[in-house]
Specification:
Elements lengths: L2 H27 L7 E6 L4 E7 L10 E6 L10 H5 L12 H4 L12 E5 L3 E8 L2 E6 L4 E5 L12 E5 L2 E5 L4 E6 L15 E6 L2 E8 L10 E6 L3 E6 L3 E6 L3 E6 L4 E5 L11 E5 L3 E5 L4 E6 L18 E6 L4 E8 L9 E6 L2 E6 L3 E7 L3 E6 L4 E5 L11 E4 L5 E4 L4 E7 L1
Antiparallel strand pairs: 1-2, 1-10, 2-8, 3-4, 3-7, 5-6, 5-10, 6-7, 8-9, 11-12, 11-20, 12-18, 13-14, 13-17, 15-16, 15-20, 16-17, 18-19, 19-24, 21-22, 21-30, 22-28, 23-24, 25-26, 25-30, 26-27, 28-29
Length: 419
Amino acid sequence: MSELANRMKFNHWYLHFIFFLFVAAQQASAQHEGFIYGEIKLKNKQVYTGQIKWSGGQMLWSDILLVAKQDNSNLRYLNEYQLNNLPTKVKEPELDWKFMNLWRDKYPERKSEIFTRFGDIALIHVTGPNEAQLYNKSGSKTRITVDERENRHLGKDIVIFNNEHKNIIKWSTISTIRFFAGPAQLSHIKGSPIYGTVMTTKGAFSGFIQWDKVKYLDNQQLEGKLNGESKVQYEFSNIVTIERTSKGALISLKSGKKKYLTEHRDVSAANRGIVVMHPQWGRVIVTWKAFRSLHFEAVPENMGYHAYADPKKIYATVSTRNHKVYKGNCIFDMDEIWNNELMEGGKDGLYYQIPFKYLIAMRPIGESYSSVTLADQRELILGHHNDVTAKNWGMLIWQRNSRHQYIPWNTISEISFRK
């Protein structure tokens, strides 16, 4: 081989090596930007800045704050007949909602509930022992109070880390909590968020992972019995893939070895769910029966606070069964106004929370389901939630003449959303 050929071969290898180092450095630099970060200002004017662990255990921007609205002022647009014809309380569906924790069907009193991702919140102003004003990134505010079914999310102590120092802040001492992007590296966090692609019975979902709903760092451990005998633990950082089997899970390690684990909640039907979360498309809880495999990946860039864009009002075109069409800004289910709010529903062991800005269309199917088309052209058939069933309270559309038009759910044939 000539000297020129050798030099070209070396240069080619060298460029690939430099590119690999660049990509690795970029991935490493972004590993902690997914953590909640901000400033807590106390009533005595003292200020703490750092990474925040919320009272319900939430650590990531993609985690959910569950609270209740103090009132639903949107109902003032309905007349007495329309109010009296809203869906009433019905028998609770035969689903284990305690198992799913935050995933419960909602009845008329449900209208007070708010599910919002921390990445969509700009500021929380504490106004009472269990009360606050929540400001989203549009500047709009909502008066909120503690939700009776999940009271850990409001009114409790909050932890904030300033480098290595841990501060426990009493709710009663707080004036405001302002959220903003944190550094890409946090010295007190020894692991990195788990990120990967989960293959399910309904396709693949990529994002941050919470295994068994509570394990979210790669220095945490997957547990089980090796070949049904001795107890073992493997750090997620050493695992390449986890594949479900009939009685457990087959894991592939970075060393090239494969291990068969059984008899532990991590690797059995007792698993509380694999949560996959992404700033763009939202969240899905994958039950063990719907889980097929997880392939671990490096955390991409731009997965932090700025990945949650400022919201716009939901704009929809609604076609009715009597062939009328209404277009304009809307209130969906007489509750959701902004496109960063979450549409909820589930089927076949998967339970979704999807921002309206990621929806293309919805079509009611009978009383129990709806067909939902996502921005990636994926079509889901969803039920088990008022957003996608006959328990939906309908839509209010503001037309060009600034008049509002109420459209009951049972008269809707199709809804299309403008991004």
